[in-house]
Design goal:
Blueprint (H helix, E strand, L loop, with lengths): L2 H6 L6 H53 L5 H14 L2 H4 L16 H17 L11
Helix pairs in contact: 2-3
Length: 136
């Protein structure tokens, strides 16, 4: 059922009451969406924590083997590669030297001209004298 149909079907509600109920419904939906987003972020953070903990266990075990001279250079390099592959992006961004690479985009001359035209148009469209501010 559409939102307007649902609120319009409520008998005895005035137009302002329906509008209030609609606003309340929208606010509740937005609140739920924010809560869902926070819950998803918490799940992602927990997954990252588990991945880091598992990686830390591997690092600790490798340190013990290195201290005991019980690991070869090849095994150490393989472990290093495994740890890098399994490292979550949120963790990788905090490890020196593993920041995400900056990708340079090569535009064609036509794309550059189009971008310049778009920027010029946008700057001309928003002149300070054309901005109105509502204080409601």
């Amino acid at each position: 059922m559409q939102l307007n149909e649902h609120f319009g079907a409520v008998n005895g509600n005035s137009s302002s009451e329906r509008e209030r109920l609609q606003r309340q419904f929208v606010q509740q939906r937005e609140l739920q969406e924010r809560q869902d987003k926070k819950a998803k972020q918490a799940e992602d953070d927990f997954s990252d924590f588990i991945a880091v903990a598992a990686s830390q266990e591997q690092v600790d075990a490798a340190r013990e083997r290195v201290a005991d001279d019980d690991i070869s250079e090849a095994e150490l390099e393989a472990l290093d590669a495994d740890l890098l592959d399994g490292m979550p992006p949120s963790v990788r961004s905090h490890v020196a030297g593993l920041e995400p690479p900056v990708v340079a985009v090569q535009n064609t001359p036509e794309e550059n001209d189009q971008a310049a035209d778009t920027l010029e148009h946008a700057q001309n469209a928003v002149a300070p004298s054309s901005i109105l501010v509502s204080t409601r």
